[in-house]
Amino acid sequence: MDLNKYTEYRSQMQTGDMIEWRKKSLVGWLIRLFSGGDTNHNSLVVDIGGYDDLVNRKFVLESTMSGVVLNSLSNKIEHHKGEAYWTPLKSEFDDKRINIGNWAFLQVGVKYDFEGLFQQIFGRVSAEASKYFCSEYLYFAYKNSDIPIKELDDGKAPRPSDMHLLGIHEPRVKL
Question: What is this structure's pTM?
Answer without folding.
Answer: 0.89
